[in-house]
Amino acid sequence: MTALILMLCSMEYPVKAEAGISGKNQPKSAPAAEENDIDQYIELHLHLDGAITQERQLLANAVDAAFTSAEVKASIRSQPVIDHPSAGMPSGENRRIIIDTDTAGDDALAILMAAKSPDITIEGVTVLQGNVSLEQAADNALMTLETAGCDAEVCLGAATALDGVKRKTFSVYGTDGMGDKGLIHPSGKPSDKDAVDFILETVEKYPDEIEIASIGPATNIANAILKDPETMSHVKRIWSMGTAGLGPGNATPVAEFNVYKDAMAYNVMLDSGIDITIVGLDICDKDGAVFDSNQLSDMENGNHVQRYAALSFSKLLEFRRETRGIDNVNACDAVFMAALIWPGFVVDTLDCQASCIAHDDCEAFGEVIFYRPDIAYDSGRIVENTNVTLVTEVDLDHFFENVNILIAK
Ligand SMILES: [Ca+2]
Predict the structure, then answer these.
(1) Any idea which of 22-26, 56-60, 272-276, 387-391 has the lowest mean pLDDT?
(2) CATH level 3 topology of 95-346+393-407
(3) Disulfide: which of 157, 166, 213, 272 matches 195 by Cβ 3.0-4.6 Å?
């Protein structure tokens, strides 16, 4: 594929299948193209689904040189280009999701990705406390949907965990959860409908169709399960950005933030019998899953959606520079959303029996233990039934480019 792209970048126009490839040079001359040649070129360009960004830019430069028609250029640039087909290709299915979120910077990027995905209809966004207060999460979700041009409604959910506690955590995304850059000024208001009622009514309306994207604590989901387990048994799948996976935690050495905020709710979800796929912290912290400051600058220099997404990470970038000396951010909810919207992104999974430590007086509070059916434990515990699918490997080649292109649409 690369050779084909280089050939296109180096050859003269109109397009001819001829030899003479001479590396990454832009065309030396660009004769005026006939209309049928333009059609042929567009057709060919649209099949370049393996192009990486730098090469795509060379192609764009070549188009600039070859064609003067702004309409033709706009037509070419408006087409979706998948940088890495196996990892960034949509499923082609029509999917209905509810996003349950404690909306901060990485939640916002995940919402933008879902809003821009051709496969996904966001039936609604339910919010709860977590990264920020319930009210701030609602404003952030409203503003994010507005930025994406999506009119999904936003419903208010839990202001505390199931046990009524607001567990103190440090706000790494800034006071407003969105980088403190003055991004949040929504024109809309949250729905009058409660988050739990919205979830139940939507599942009743579309039984066995609704997938729930859980990118905050599991409180709203647990409340819906406790209120009407029969209706919730018709949720198609819950996708959870939660747990430390098979690695260390971030709220404590063993607990991940979302589970730590409401471990009791996480257990209710794990015990519900609903199909659950988990993307844990170990996946989100991998090389290739994090965005460095240069990539965030590239994103910021894009359109208004890209700029909004990039700026929302400002405080997190500052925090990681100051406290850890690293120049990148982990966009956990965006990695999670990639697993949900791009089937090829998930390379390997493990079905496990998961349970969460939810005793408040225990130091391991919020830890999720994954028992594997393929291991004979010395304790004698035998795993007969599994309750989650844990994502254990994802394809991170060109992850940033695929996200950046998707939200630019
Ligand atoms: Ca979140």
Answers:
(1) 22-26
(2) Inosine-uridine Nucleoside N-ribohydrolase; Chain A (3.90.245)
(3) 157
CB count within 10 Å of CB 85 equals 14
Q: How far is CA 55 from CA 6, 12, 215, 320, in A?
A: 8, 16, 34, 32
230-264 exposure pattern, b = at least 16 Cβ within 10 A, e = fewer: ebbeebbbbbbbbbbbeeebbbbebbbbbbbbbbb
In order of 245, 362, 390, the CA distances from 365 in angstroms are 15, 5, 20
Instruction: Name residue 211's amino acid.
Output: E
Q: How many residues does the chain have?
A: 409
Residue 102 CA to ligand 1 center (angstroms) comes to: 5
CA–CA separation, 156 vs 117, rounded Å?
24
pLDDT at 200 over 70: yes
Count the alpha carbons within 13 Å of 128 in the hemisphere toward its beta carbon.
Answer: 28
Model-level pTM? 0.79
CA of 216 to the centre of ligand 1 (A): 4
pLDDT in tens, 25-35: 333 333 343 44
Cis peptide before 14 (omega within 30 of 0): yes
Q: Give the domain ranges of the chain.
A: 2-77, 95-346+393-407
- CA of 348 relative to ligand 1 center, distance in Å: 23
**If you measure from the C-alpha of residue 24 to the centroid of ligand 1, how many angstroms do you get, rounded to a whole number?**
42
- The residue type found at 315 is K
pLDDT at 54 over 80: no
